Each structure stands twice: as C-alpha cells, then as structure tokens.
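Input structure tokens:
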C-alpha cells in the first residue's frame, strides 16, 4: 500500500509556530509530528510513502531523507508554487501507484488501512473517503453519506443531515488525476464534488476519533495524546 502525505500547506492558523518550519516538523514530546505519522503507518504495514512537500519542505527532506532510518521508503514531490491538496497529487503523478491513499500532513489517524483498501478493491468506484460521525464535535461536520456513498461534501453548507466529517484518509484510483487541472491550484474540496456527481465516491465509516495539529486546539489535544501514549 502507498500513501501520499500532503504536507505542502502554510499552516496559517498556527501563527509563529510554523513561520519558520512546516507543520510536519513541529516538535511534539521530542520528535517531529511526521515521525508519529510514519510510526503509525509502519505499524499498519504501509511503508511506501510519497511526501508532497511545499512550504519549507527541504527541512522535512533533510531530517527524514529516504525514510530508511524510520522503517519506510520516502520519495518526494516538490511544489514550485502552491498547488492545493488535489494539485499536489497531480504534481506527484509520476510517483503514484494505480491505487493509493492520500493523507493530510497534519492528521493522525487510528485507521485500519488494510481493511479500507480491501473494501475499496471490492467495489467498482474511482475513490473512497473515510468518514467519522462527528456531529460538529472536533470540527464542523461537512459530509453526508447514504448507503455506501458520499452524497454531499461542503465546508460552507450546514444542515441536520450533515453529521459526518471527512476523516482525513482517502483512496484514489489514478484515473482521478485526470479530473484535476494541470499546474493549477486545486483542492480536494474541489475534487470531491466532481466524484460525488458521478456517483464515484465511496464512504467508509471509522469509529475511532481523529487527531490533528492544524489548529491550536488540535495541537494541544494531540500533545496530550502523545504524552499519554509514551
């Protein structure tokens, strides 16, 4: 299994903490956040990593190298300009397998990656979104599912039916990259509605909560989790 980690964002919500370093390099209990992600992926037998790097990405590559010291294999896709989360995947196309996971560079996901991939491969769809029944608890819910499909995704609209949230790990067939414009800023928030309109976005519900370090509150909660897990 292969995971593309989207680590090119500028992390403006974290202020001075990420002015001189990327989110992935934030020191939490003595090691950078990305090290926690890699340890979790290795435990799930995911060792093929494509790191989509942008803002200050050279710091990540200097520290982690080819990943061999961390039990994984890392290859890097660098952005010359901000491309957004979907644009970063398009930019990394030459490094990606025919089917791959994507994961945000600020997410820590207690997920059975093998089970998700098995389910995706049992269906005949282009993509899969993991979802969590959040009910606005950890962030604003943004997703509606019906049966085994995502039927609505929006970070702007609200409604009683919108109780799920995008969990943070997605599976894509490489065919999806054809829906993303070349060398342009394009977000997964733009790609998901295209897949939904085609009836091609599977939903996989996860019961375990997610952690993230993209906000001050999220960073505080993950730091607490990391301390307890020592």
């Amino acid at each position: 299994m292969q995971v593309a980690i989207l680590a090119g964002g500028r992390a403006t919500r974290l202020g001075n903490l990420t002015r001189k370093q990327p989110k992935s390099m934030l020191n939490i209990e003595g090691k950078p956040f990305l090290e926690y992600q890699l340890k979790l992926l290795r435990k799930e037998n995911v060792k093929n990593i494509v790191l989509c790097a942008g803002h200050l990405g050279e710091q990540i590559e200097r520290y982690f190298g080819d990943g061999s010291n961390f039990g994984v294999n890392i290859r890097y896709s660098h952005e010359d300009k901000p491309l957004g989360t979907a644009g970063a995947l398009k930019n990394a196309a030459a490094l990606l397998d025919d089917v791959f996971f994507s994961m945000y560079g600020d997410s820590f996901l207690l997920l059975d990656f093998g089970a998700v991939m098995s389910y995706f491969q049992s269906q005949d769809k282009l993509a899969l979104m993991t979802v969590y029944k959040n009910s606005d608890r950890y962030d604003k819910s943004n997703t509606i599912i019906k049966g085994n499909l995502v039927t609505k995704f929006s970070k702007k609209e609200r409604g009683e039916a919108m109780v799920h949230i995008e969990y943070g790990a997605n599976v894509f067939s490489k065919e999806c990259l054809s829906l993303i414009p070349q060398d342009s800023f394009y977000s997964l928030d733009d790609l998901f509605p295209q897949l939904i309109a085609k009836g091609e976005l599977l939903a996989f519900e996860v019961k375990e909560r997610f952690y993230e370090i993209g906000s001050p509150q999220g960073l505080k909660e993950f730091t607490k989790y990391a301390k307890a897990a020592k």
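The chain has a mean pLDDT of 92. The longest strand covers residues 164-173.
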